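Notebook, p. 212. Picked up where the previous page left off. The plan for this session was modest: take the two constructs that came back from the sequencing core last week, fold each one, and keep the raw output in the notebook itself so nobody has to go hunting through shared drives later. Recording the first one now, exactly as returned: residue sequence, then the structure token string.
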Amino acid sequence: MDLIITDLPIFPNMYLVKGLIANNENGFDWDSYFLNKSEKKKDISPALESIFTAARSHLKENHALLGFVFQKFMRQLLKDVRFPSPPRILELGAATGFLTKWLVDNSGGTGTLVDRSDQAYAAFMDTMDAKNASMTYVREDIFRLQLPPQYDIVCSFGVIEHFPDKTEIISTHKKFLSDNGYALIIIPLDSPLTRAFYEVNFELNQGYRELLTSAEFLKILIAENLEVINTARSEGYVYDIVGALCRIPSR
């Protein structure tokens, strides 16, 4: 995805994660993110190095734990909601397709994953399993994507926080929805735990990322003419996430 920073964040006190590249006008470097490499090292004083190392070991991604926490989180987010069977799912900025794989596992259907990053696609291929057979991967910029408005679920996980202006990215979710479709948006939550996670895992900060509180997140969704059906917040992972299931009113 191309990201050009032209506006200040909508909330003046919003927490911006410090990027490795200051004032990165070319946006977020997704290839470096998925390669998990950085040319710049964190400057840590010898006196604090052992504390920093311990913090990194405690706040380290754990896929088994994420799966456990995510299951509970999604059950809460989708409580009392029934999708068409089988649902057609579109994931924007899909990376490995983690979110769509969960949805296919639990709701059936087929998924279309969209991401322009070569390394994101490589990461998807590295996680190849039986669920991948029900998915199509489109390597395209999400803002140039040409698809009909036919999807029952248009979703993203960790995408909209990379855009200072939320209107275009949220409109991109809306434009592909079927008449009764749902937008499902998940982001990292602005909390002390999430701030600490990104501070110590500095190599993940390859460009612009803002953290939103639950109130800020909901305010943005409502301002973009979305009806919020359900919300959920995670518990027990190495960073916090918040999600919202939305519809376009009167559809």
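Okay, moving on. Second construct, recorded in the same format:
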Amino acid sequence: MNGDSGDRQISRYFERPGVQPLDDAAFDGFVDRLGHLSLNLRSGVFKHETGLRRIAKIVLGGRSRHSLLRARLTPFLETLIWKDPLAALAARAAVERHGIPVVVTYRPPEAVVASYKRLSWRFPVHQMAEDLSGAGLKGGALPVRDAKNIVEESAALWSMIYAELLSLAQARPDLVTVLHMDAVLRQPRQSYQSLFARLGLEHGARAERGLASLEERLAQKSKSDLPSGHPHSQDRNLNVVNSYWRALLSEEEVARIRARTEDVRMGYDRYFESGGAAAISMATAEKLAEPA
């Protein structure tokens, strides 16, 4: 659901089904085409891309097209994993209208904001606030008081998205699982075993290869703790994805983020502390890691 490189029916970032231009019928049609692997994806060429990379994307397409092609070429495909942070505001419609299980990956606001700052990613937070009727914005505050401040904008974005997803997780624990990123980083095997069990997925040979690769990467150190400017860098140090913000954000920026996101963050703290079956936290992973 990327407004620049995704399906041609999607015209904006973070579309919310039921809100124009993506009404419920249009979203239902999109989900049907997704299930039949018949999406009409854009080339995935971004404005900043030039030269051979731009030509290659025009001819061959970007990551989304490659993922779609691999899915089409997978024999006896039974389960489709739709990984799409930009579909966060469509999660409720996916659950309520189509019964699609949703996995929410929880990352602390400082980590998310640092990523957006590092990559210079900007999003239409005023449009999103209007679509959500201000949900997730502390004290009904405007999404962004300083339109040039990417930190404030990103913190507001985090609050709106995670407030919406927490509300959904609390309302539909039967179909929504919340996975804490720290659990994945520190106890990957136990975290994914718990997740697969929740989703009713078989932990087969392919899943084991992927997990072994993740464990190998977590055991390695990259050349730098601070990721490159590429969002999909293969050389990044996975161990610090939730902590490298300390080298990128100023004290004033951290204070601004925490003031903006405090209420929603505390809501997740309480959610994980409750220890429900739908919450996969460090406590869950550590319990699974204990010898029988």
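Notes on construct two before I forget. The chain has a mean pLDDT of 84.
Flagging for discussion at group meeting.
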